[in-house]
Write a structure and sequence with these properties.
The protein contains 9 helices and 10 strands. By secondary structure, the protein is an alpha/beta fold. Helix 3 packs across helix 4, helix 4 crosses helix 5 and helix 5 runs parallel beside helix 6. The two termini are 21 Å apart.
């Protein structure tokens, strides 16, 4: 890892207006309330916390799916938060997101080939359909799927297969940073380990950085280099994996760990 982080998030706030009506006064929901963290090249930082703590909003804010209220997020030295959609568009190749629901993230009307061809042409990575088709075949094999599936539609696949296709759509662009938002939580337990091992292998082999967002500490322990614990919109503890799992400092982290007996053994 280099000394200069690939991503530097500083005092990030993302607030939403809630309530309102004839008699109700609108209030602000502070989903993300002043968090800071770094991610270095080739590092996996996991953001973990209970549902509703704001962790998914962090990922959506960093990919401009939600507007930030204030703060900074420096990606390779550029603050991406105030960028317009057109200014941010060239960075979408470098900053990719794996979503929780693989079916919702795939257009049911497009074949897998069409789904994977589109980003290649948008970012100028293929000059022809023949070239795109070759890249798609290679990428499908990379995620453990036969190239012949590119002619099929999303509904013809299982949840685990659809998530592999979603991962292929990300990996075909060779991003520098991947934000994985509950990427295995929608899958059957029997499939989770397969997809998680695939993500870990692809991350290691490609050298990409990752912000891995999850409520599952068992999953986090398996994939992380460092862990940031989030509670009510704030990061309450950050440390390397061994420190968080073996010597947690914050009471909330201790409570999370004690609630899941299967992660109490020592971290390898």
């Amino acid at each position: 890892m280099t000394n200069t982080p690939l991503l530097q998030v500083r005092e990030l706030h993302t607030h939403f207006r809630t309530g309102g009506g004839i008699f109700a006064e609108k209030t602000w929901l502070r989903a993300v309330n002043g968090i800071s963290f770094d991610i270095h090249a080739g590092e996996v930082l996991s953001l973990v916390g209970e549902s509703g703590c704001g962790k998914s909003t962090v990922g959506r804010t960093l990919t401009q799916l939600e507007p930030s209220t204030s703060g900074a997020a420096l990606f390779n030295g550029q603050d991406i938060l105030p960028m317009t959609a057109s200014a941010f568009r060239p960075l979408r190749r470098d900053i990719q997101m794996i979503f929780q629901d693989p079916f919702a993230s795939l257009n049911p009307r497009l074949t897998i080939e069409q789904t994977l061809t589109e980003p290649l042409f948008i970012h100028g990575l293929a000059a022809s359909k023949t070239e795109a088709r070759a890249l798609i075949a290679d990428t499908l094999e990379l995620v453990g799927m036969a190239p012949k599936v590119m002619e099929r539609y999303p509904h013809e696949f299982s949840g685990g297969q659809r998530q592999r296709i979603g991962i292929a759509r990300v990996m075909i662009l060779k991003p520098k940073l991947v934000i994985a938002d509950e990427a295995v939580s929608a899958l059957d337990v029997s499939i989770q380990a397969q997809v998680l091992n695939l993500i870990k292998e692809l991350q290691r082999d490609s050298g990409m950085s990752m912000l891995f967002i999850s409520h599952d500490l068992g999953v986090v322990r398996h994939i992380s280099d460092r862990v940031a614990v989030m509670y009510q919109g704030q990061i309450v503890e950050t440390g390397d994996k061994r420190q968080i799992f073996e010597a947690p400092q914050h009471e909330y982290t201790k409570r999370l760990l004690s609630a899941i007996p299967r992660i109490t053994e020592r971290v390898a």
